[in-house]
Each structure stands twice: as C-alpha cells, then as structure tokens.
Write a structure and sequence with these properties.
The structure is a single chain. The protein contains ten helices and two strands, in the order αααααααααββα. The chain has helices at about 1-15, 20-45, 50-60, 60-80, 90-110, 120-160, 170-195, 200-205, 205-225, 250-255; strands spanning about 240, 250. Strands 1-2 form a two-stranded antiparallel ribbon. Strand 1 and strand 2 form a beta hairpin. Helix 1 (about 1-15) runs parallel beside helix 9 and helix 4 runs antiparallel to helix 7 (about 170-195).
Length: about 260
C-alpha cells in the first residue's frame, strides 16, 4: 500500500510540477524501505542491520510529511491573499516550522544511531523522545496557526460578504486531519520509547501497524485526495481581495472581458 501511494504521489508531483511535495514522496519511500526491512527483520532475528534500518526509516517519514504540510499552509494563505490573517507570514511560517522539523529529524536520527549498542540504547531512546517532543510542540503551534487563520478569514468573509473560487477550506481541513494523525502517531512513539525496550509496545507488532503504519497511510491517502494542486486557479476564478474598502471580490475573468473605452 505504501509503495502504491508513493508512486501515486510521485506521479501527481511530476504531473502538477509541485516540487515542494518532494519531501512527502521521500517520506513515502522511507515507509516502503522501513516496512520491507521490518519484514526482513522478523525473519532474521539474529541480524541487527534489518532492525536498525526499519527503526530509522519508520521513525523519519512523519517529519518529511510535516515539512510538506507546512508549505501547503503557506500556499493556502497566499492563494487567498490572507497574509494579514495569519499569526505568521507565509515566509516566516515555512522557515520556522521547517527549521524546527529538520532539527527534530536530526535529533531523532542521532538517537536512532545509538540503538545498535546495548549500552547506548537507553540514551538513544531519550534523544529520540526529545526529538519527538519538539515535533509535538511545533505541531501544536502549527495547528494553532491554521485554526487562527481559518477563524479570522471566516469572520472577514462573514462581515464583508466575500466569496472565493479557491478551495481553501478543504485544504485546511486536510491539514487538520493529517496533522492530527501525525500528532497521534508522535504521541504513540513517545509512549513507546518511554516504556522502553522491554515494554508492551515494543514487544508486540500490532500497535506499530495501528498507531503508526495505518495513521501514516491515512495521511498519504488524505493528502492525495485533497492535493494542494487544487489551490491552482485560472483567470476565471474569484479571489478574495483582503484590502480595505467595500469591494471584496476580484473577478479576473470580468476584468479581462471588460471592453476598453476610447
């Protein structure tokens, strides 16, 4: 399933030329590698390499998925010219959240590198927990930005009677759903590493498939259904003009068709 979804996302990215979705495709590729290595590890219990590969490659995809979601948020804000309704400007939102995301990626990668030695495995667990905690905090901040932007924009539309042909609300709902799924997965991972190598979650397979694999698969499916390519609009679409004044809708098509007076 992950292989099929990754191929679908790669095809969609190439077709729409939305290259900022590349981290999402890489994350899907990591999921395929991780679960392939996990299947190999279950049949080669005496080999450490497959265990390490699955541990690392299943730990990192949500970070890459999140990086793409942050960039989608910035594009939603720009698409409706709603910069003034966002807690952070699109540029700063992308920079801050992606920087923290890759800091989390670096920390988790360093922690995963310590899992191959019995005497450093607990240190690795704590480092991974720290990286996951950073990602959880930043995700909470990201969702606050989305909710605030949504509320402010809806209030503006209600007050001015504005309308838009851009599907910004479905895109925000997709961001909510995928963000909650990633957040739930990260909380599960924190609990998993806190309970330790001999804990119930690490001793049993089903929690990983339910609280990690299934949730990440839903993220990939949701992102494909409500793909950010839907934000692309032509000259026929209406966009909300978020400037002062009574006129709140700009009809590009009408402007293009208006005859010139000499």
């Amino acid at each position: 399933m992950f292989a099929l979804m990754t191929i679908a996302h790669g095809w969609k990215m190439i077709k729409t030329r939305l290259w900022f979705c590349l981290p999402f495709v890489i994350g899907g590729t990591f999921e395929v590698i991780g679960y392939t290595a996990r299947a190999t590890a279950s049949n080669s219990t005496g080999s450490l390499a497959p265990y390490l590969i699955q541990a690392i490659f299943l730990l990192l995809p949500p970070v890459l998925f999140a990086a793409t979601l942050y960039m989608v948020y910035s594009r939603v804000v720009r698409a409706v010219q709603g910069e003034r309704f966002s807690l952070l400007s699109p540029r700063w939102a992308t920079a801050i959240f992606i920087f923290s995301d890759f800091q989390s990626l670096s920390i988790q990668s360093n922690g995963a590198g310590l899992l191959d030695k019995p005497r450093t495995v607990h240190i690795g667990d704590y480092i991974i927990i720290a990286g996951l905690a950073i990602q959880i905090v930043m995700f909470a901040g990201f969702m606050l930005c989305c909710l605030t932007f949504n509320h402010r924009l809806r209030v503006h539309i209600a007050e001015t009677g504005s309308a838009s042909g851009i599907p910004w609300q479905p895109c925000l709902k997709m961001l909510y759903a995928t963000s909650l799924a990633i957040l739930a997965r990260n909380i599960y991972r924190v609990i998993e590493f806190i309970t330790g190598q001999n804990g119930y979650l690490l001793d049993h397979e089903w929690p990983t498939y339910v609280f990690d694999g299934a949730l990440m698969l839903l993220v990939m499916i949701g992102f494909l259904i409500w793909h950010p390519s839907k934000l692309s609009f032509t000259a026929r679409d209406s966009v909300i003009e978020l400037t002062s004044g009574r006129r709140s809708i700009v009809e590009h098509d009408d402007a293009a068709k208006r005859p010139e007076h000499t």
